[in-house]
Amino acid sequence: MARIAVVTGGCRGIGLAISKRLSQDGYQVVAAGRKSEGDVSDALSEIAANGLKPLYVQADVSSPEDRKKILSSTLSAFGRVDLLVNNAGVAPKERKNILEMSEESWDYVIDTNTKSNMFMTQLAANAMLSQPMLYRKRGTVVNISSCSADVSSPNRAEYCVSKAGISMLTKLYADALAPHGIFVHEVRPGVIHSDMTQSVQAKYDKLVADGVFPLGRWGEGEDVAAAVSVFASDAFLYTTGNYIDVDGGFHIRRL
């Protein structure tokens, strides 16, 4: 029996790489995203090429009703959820200094990145608590945050705060759910090739060339997916509430 994985934002960028890797690992993937199913048909085919045919749920994680739709569709189709990957996220529509940032931009980013994480995890965790423990874990939650959880970028403060909030949610849920056999982890990507980083590619190309990233290259979605795969497995059964940097060594403080 395949384990069931829900991946928000699961048909583009990092999320697509995660969906493909989990499918390859034997998971039945439920991919959620804002686009219509027809618009993501190629991505769904890529996921299916690695394993089981995915279930797609058109949903916006910033909507309470859509979050419920993701979970109810999963339970209706498969009866349980074993893994939630909170991957969906947005950047500010316009980068502005913290002294000029609008409340509208703050709400947009926080609602999608942090509030959705809080309540999508709440829904999934309660479902996990009510289902029989068929494996060595009752369930797993993996949060995709960012190196921005710990790095200051005053021209996108709302994004940094949203990711720092995810880090705390990881600790809070890990603490609350550990006695029940549910593990919660965090992956902090650095500079990853995706549509979110296309607009600032020249900036990051220069940082790579200047040696800011010790491993000397951009990250790829597959690098993040590999970390999710390990957290989703039974490899770590005596650790929870932890994070891993997938950032080419960017987190290393150097003189």
Give your account of this protein's structure:
By secondary structure, the protein is α/β, with parallel strands linked by helices. The chain has one domain: NAD(P)-binding Rossmann-like Domain (Rossmann fold, 3-Layer(aba) Sandwich). Helix content is 42%, strand content 15%. It contains 7 helices and 7 strands, in the order βαβαβαβαβαβααβ. The chain has a 7-stranded parallel β-sheet, with helices on both faces. β2, α2 and β3 form a beta-alpha-beta unit. It is globular.
List keywords for this structure.
255 residues; alpha/beta; Rossmann fold; 42% helix
Q: What summary fits the major beta sheet?
A: 7 strands, parallel
| CATH class placement | Alpha Beta
What ranges have pLDDT less than 50 throughout 5 or more consecutive residues? Answer: none
Give the strand order, joined by hyphens, for the main sheet.
3-2-1-4-5-6-7
Oligomer: single chain
The CATH homologous superfamily is termed NAD(P)-binding Rossmann-like Domain
Q: What is the straight-line distance between the termini?
A: 51 Å
Q: Report the average pLDDT across residues.
A: 95
Secondary structure: number of strands:
7
Task: Indicate the structural class.
Answer: alpha/beta
Identify the overall geometry: globular
Radius of gyration of CA atoms, rounded to a whole number: 18 Å
Examine the secondary-structure arrangement and name the CATH architecture.
Answer: 3-Layer(aba) Sandwich
Please estimate the helix content: 40-55%
Total of DSSP H or I helical runs spanning 4+ residues: 7
Task: List the secondary-structure elements in sequence, H or E.
Answer: EHEHEHEHEHEHHE
